[in-house]
Design a protein that fits this description.
Length: 451
């Protein structure tokens, strides 16, 4: 994560879910006879005001579009400054700062609240499959285990429906802005039966506050998947098809060389990018270099800096076989890869629509207080520096990559562990695949609790 300034970081748009996040906070104590420890203090309010001021200045100085899409930053700042003075809790203050940035409707511009001294684990994974929010994995030994099951469709979460546009925003709210001790679900099982479940979260306390950039961006990858065991490169084979699951575009290039060296022994390659949040520009270019025979343009940055186009040439170790990319909900660099495969006719994209979160951003770390005095709160903001225009003249932002061959898993497939989408990709290459075997080939790897 040391190259974060060069990353395409998965972002969000908060405006539509501000009311949701506000409704999720615990109700204030009604006993006015005793001081409420949850109420914001004057020093905390001073800190929140300073954060809003600094975030506003960072947007003004660095946002890729100096017109801010027509948004009147001064008027919006004044309105949210007034709201901030009435924030009942520090959590509410953070939500107001986050909502201030939401007016830009930009996937990569968002508030990074101060680091916490603990992590929260909810014990499940969910993903949009078409227009259905489905549970895809449940962590053994958690409270979710036995209450939620793969294949369950989320009818409501805390009384609200879950949709594709707001899914990442919901995760941001629950993981970064307002971690919850428990979540209330209404789910529908693969058999059609509806049930209500309350799932308790697991909180893990650190010995001391973990600051710095890595801690600030933990939530930008699903459940803080920064551990090497979680992000390791995995592969399997199905006849003459090599299947590679790539979790992100932050990898050691020598590891990629090793995997592609194995893949070159096979005439067909399936690259699974489902849920891939993106990563480093250099790693995107490096991987694409395996599949091109001449120099190509990936995207043209559009912003204040007028950077050179992102171009890729052969890296000298070409993969000459057929390529199928499996996609669903991927973001940033992963989306650029999939769309480049389509535009350059390097292969076929199978699966579901990607996230539509493709901008180049930079994280601006900030702090409130004095480190030397031992009272500094690290925080920051991710701010879009450039939009990325594809060779067809379009941006993927809010649009995503539509698959050449749509393929969605049924709820029953998730429940039984069958990966029918991956099997479809293998079949398109002329292979024969066992969906159950493919489902077992890439089990969910959960990050350690001390991450």
């Amino acid at each position: 994560m040391s190259r974060i300034a060069a990353h395409f970081c998965l972002g969000l748009a908060l405006e539509l879910t501000l009311s949701l996040s506000l409704s999720l906070r615990p109700a204030l104590a009604q006993d006015t006879a005793k001081p409420n420890p949850n109420l914001i203090t004057k020093p905390q309010l001073m800190m929140a005001n300073a954060m809003l001021d600094n975030v506003r200045q960072a947007v003004k100085d660095n946002y890729y579009d100096p017109t801010l899409h027509g948004l009147n930053l001064t008027e919006r700042y004044q309105a949210y400054k007034a709201r901030l003075q009435k924030a009942p809790t520090l959590g509410d203050a953070f939500r107001i700062i986050a909502a201030f940035l939401a007016g830009l409707d930009d996937s990569h511009t968002f508030f990074l609240p101060p680091a916490r001294s603990w992590n929260v684990y909810y014990g499940f994974r969910m993903r949009m499959e078409g227009d259905r929010p489905l549970i895809t994995a449940v962590r053994p030994g958690t409270d979710a285990d036995g209450k939620l099951k793969p294949g369950d469709e989320i009818v409501s979460l805390e009384g609200y429906s879950v949709n594709r546009k707001d899914l990442w925003t919901l995760n941001y709210s629950l993981d970064a802005l307002e971690p919850r001790g428990g979540l209330h679900f209404v789910v529908r099982g693969p058999d059609g039966a509806t049930r209500r479940e309350t799932v308790k979260a697991k909180f893990v306390q650190h010995g001391a506050l973990v600051g710095g950039l890595d801690q600030l961006i933990n939530y930008s990858i699903d459940q803080g998947e920064l551990d090497a065991k979680v992000n390791k490169l995995r592969w399997t084979t199905a006849g003459d098809v090599f299947v590679w699951k790539l979790p992100n575009f932050t990898f050691d290039q020598s590891d990629a060389d090793s995997v592609l060296g194995r893949a070159k022994k096979y005439p067909n390659l399936v690259l699974d990018l489902r849920g891939n949040p993106g990563g480093a520009v250099d790693d995107l270019k490096y991987l694409l270099g395996y599949f091109v025979t001449g120099k190509i343009r990936v995207a043209t940055p559009q912003g204040r800096r007028h950077d050179s186009p992102i171009e890729v040439g052969p890296n000298g170790d070409h993969y000459a076989g057929k390529l199928v990319v499996v996609d669903s909900g991927s973001a940033s660099a992963a989306e650029l890869f999939a769309r480049t495969v389509q535009l350059q006719r390097l292969g076929t994209v199978v699966g579901d629509t990607s996230a539509g979160a493709v901008m180049e951003s930079q994280i601006y770390p900030m702090q409130y207080g004095d480190v030397l005095m031992g009272a500094a709160a690290p925080y920051g903001a991710s701010i879009t520096r450039e939009d990325l225009i594809m060779p067809d003249g379009n941006s993927l932002e809010r649009m995503g990559v539509s698959p050449d061959v749509p393929a969605l898993p049924a709820a029953a497939d998730l429940a039984s562990g069958r990966d029918t989408v991956l099997a479809k990709a293998v079949e398109l290459l002329g292979g024969t695949a066992d969906p159950t075997a493919l489902g077992k080939a890439f089990p969910t790897i959960w990050p350690p609790y001390n991450n």
